[in-house]
Amino acid sequence: MKDLQESPERDNQDDAQARIWETNHAKILEFISETIKWAGSTIPTVTEISKGTGLSRKAIYNHLKNVSLNPAGQQRLEMLDAFEGEIMMKICKLAMYGNLQAAKLYLELRGKIQPKGFTINSQTNNVQINGITLNQQVLQNLSAEQLKTIEEILKSVNGVTRGNRFDGVTEANNSDNQQDNISK
């Protein structure tokens, strides 16, 4: 019976591909990290990453899209998963020695307590018109033309002056608008 082991040439090819992937990964992450440090919270575009790293836009797009599918990417994720348990053990050890910040962090990470200022917003904003429910999910499935039509209808209604752009509506905007309506 034929031996199913891979040839040494195949192993060398896999190693070379892994090294290329790791080099590209390091370039991309370093550029993103430096850009964020320099520009604040602005994440660079694929074009900016391409110019900054010398890699093609296609290579960057494919790399970012397939990080978890690449064997080297999977290996990195597995390493991070392995460290997660170790980190939790160190936090737990600090907590056991009386470090209250570590105890709090440990309990938050384990989901036993919620971080201060963290609330789960279970409010849903729906509008019902003649039995038809209009919510964020429905709005996201509408075409730009359909959204524009609804926006024009709402603009024509007396008193609608804020929050009538659907593409920028957030829970915070909706809460602000509700407060405005209540105070009028």
Average pLDDT over all residues: 77
Report the C-alpha radius of gyration, rounded. Answer: 26 Å
Report how far the terminal alpha carbons are from each other: 85 Å
Query: How many helical stretches?
Result: 8
Low-confidence stretches: 164-184
Shape field = extended
Q: What is the total tally of β strands?
A: 2
Q: Into which percent range does the helicity of residues fall?
A: 55-70%
Key terms:
two-stranded antiparallel sheet; 63% helix; mainly alpha; 3 domains
Draw up the topology in text.
Elements: H1 8-39, H2 46-53, H3 57-65, H4 71-96, H5 100-109, E1 127-129, E2 132-134, H6 136-140, H7 144-156, H8 171-183
Antiparallel strand pairs: 1-2
Structure characterization notes:
The chain has 184 residues and is mainly α. It has three domains: 16-67; 81-109; 127-183, no CATH class. Helix content is 63%, strand content 3%. The chain has eight helices and two strands, in the order H-H-H-H-H-E-E-H-H-H. Helix 4 packs across helix 5. It is extended and about 65 Å long.
